[in-house]
Amino acid sequence: MATDRTDGRTRGEAGARRGRLALLAAAVAGGALVLGARSASVAEPPAPEPVRVAVCDVVRASSLVMETEAYTRPLTERRSALAAQLENGRKEVDALAGQLQALGPNDRGPEAQALAQRFQQKREAFAQATQTAEREFEQFRAAKNYEAYRRAVAAADAVAARRGYTIVIASRAMDEAAVPVSGQAFLQGVLARPVIRWPKGDDITADVFAELKVSPPAPTDAPPAPAAGTPPAKP
């Protein structure tokens, strides 16, 4: 009887172990299915976009925008308005200067001293007003320059997008650089030309000019075109 009970217990324990192993195998299989499903749900990363680099003389483009009537006219009008504001002060200073000259250098009476004091005050006030007007005009011109530069950058971006470029570097050709006349001019020339070499076909400056509807002036040192019917010069 004891042997039968022992054998039964042994068989029960073996069955229990087989049951636990079956549960463990099922759990492992289920985990593998979950991991497989998660792996399948993760999309493959997109292939990197091919890089194409273009070069554009954005500074020149913005300068040509500033030369258009849409920008020269507001600058002229603002300068004229500021000059008109200073006109009365200038006339007062000129009138007082004329009165002092009429008194003569030897006239040091109370009237002459009072006139000289008024002249000094008016001249200082006029100088301060002139400096204020100059600062206001420079701020106005800087704002217009910034606006023109933003337009040039937007045009370069639009042209690059149409032609399939992913990067645009603002630079200009070395053959357009003039011999600098000062250290500041040299530094500006260097900073305007960060790129030394590039394929000419990747220069989108001309297309940006067309996008902005501007064009650089013809070189003044170019020889005049021959008249119609003129035979070519002999070498």
Task: Please provide a written account of the structure.
This protein has 235 residues and is mainly α. It has a domain at 53-212. The protein is built from six helices and two strands, in the order αβαααβαα. It has helices spanning 2-41, 58-66, 69-103, 110-163, 183-191, 205-212, and strands at 53-56, 167-170. The protein has a two-stranded parallel ribbon with strand order 1-2. The radius of gyration is 41 Å and the shape is elongated. 11% of the residues are buried. Mean pLDDT is 81; it is low at 2-6 and 227-232.
String of helices and strands: HEHHHEHH
- Main sheet summary: 2 strands, parallel
Structural class comes to: mainly alpha
Radius of gyration: 41 Å
Q: On the 0-100 scale, what is the average pLDDT?
A: 81
Strand content: under 5%
Ranges where pLDDT stays below 50 over 5 or more residues in a row are 2-6, 227-232
Q: Please give the share of residues in helix.
A: 55-70%
Helical region count? Answer: 6
For the secondary structure, the number of strands is 2
What is the molecular shape? elongated
- How widely separated are the two ends? 130 Å
Q: What topology, given as strand order, has the largest sheet?
A: 1-2
